[in-house]
Amino acid sequence: MEKRKLIKFGKNSYVISLPRDWIEANKSDVTLTKNGRDLLVTSDPNVIKNKNTITINCSKKDVTLIKRLILSSYINNFSTIVVRDFSQEQVAYIRKTIKNLFAVEMIEESKNKIVIKDMLNISDISLYEIIRRTDYIIKSMFAESIESFENNLYTDVSKRDDDVNRLSYLALRVVRLSLDENDVLKILKINSAEILHIWELIARIENIGDSVKRISEMVSKLKINEKPKKLLIAFYKDLKADFDNVMKCYYTKDEKLVYDLLSKSVENRMEIFKLNSLSKEIEFSFIIEQFYNIHESIKNIARSSVNTYLMIPNGN
Hints:
The protein is an alpha+beta fold. The chain has 11 helices and 8 strands. The protein has helices spanning 20-25, 63-75, 88-99, 127-147, 154-180, 182-188, 192-219, 226-252, 255-263, 265-276, 282-309, and strands at 7-9, 13-15, 31-35, 38-42, 53-57, 80-84, 104-109, 113-118. A 4-stranded mixed sheet has the order 5-6-8-7, covered by helices on one side. Strands 1-2 form a two-stranded antiparallel ribbon. Helix 4 runs antiparallel to helix 5 and helix 4 (127-147) packs antiparallel against helix 8 (226-252). The two termini are 42 Å apart.
């Protein structure tokens, strides 16, 4: 850290001198970003970040691993991702994976090489906006998935889940960048404790989206009578209400609401166990498992909210 004196310049302005070595390394105009009492000076609104290139060799790898390697490279903010030595069967899957990524561009494609370039401008990103958009999509998925018990809407739910994944990857990418570059937190106007909560929140929301999609797929295969089906729908609606409330806790920091959700956790688990005893059908048990996954994700979002924003009451 280095202190600099303010020098009065005219009637209403002040100037400061900048270190010579910094000027020589960053020969460009500067950007000023206000964050409370702080004033961040950067040479580039994109912020200095990892500019490394990573190469992914697809030879002898299955498409699932290739997808994971591309996503991992994206989330870890490699500026250039080179994908090489892929087969014709793999290339369509690679293109689909790239299509699901925000702020990248495929700048080169040949018979055995694809080059993906980072186009992220951190100044254009709002994590809060990403979370709100993802929240809205998940709520729509819940509604359509519940309706799937009467009408098959799996295709619609699956498309929405693709949107959730795209937003989640972008959010995780920004969160990771903020952990590597201290200045990013100031530009995002978020503190370090909150960024960890957002990491947890995004991961759990994405998991909920996956479970909702899986339920929608499995519902069409169910062969149960009306009574257990009505019980499933009723509990599913209750889970949706819990998700609505845990997201409301995130936006409003409502202390009572988050404690009510955590207090309800044991009751929900018992209800899940009761539902599981209604049928031995594989599809039925699979849906119950997804209910449990959604419940656990909601509970963990609530716990993370308590740890980040709220005080735990005495005796709890």
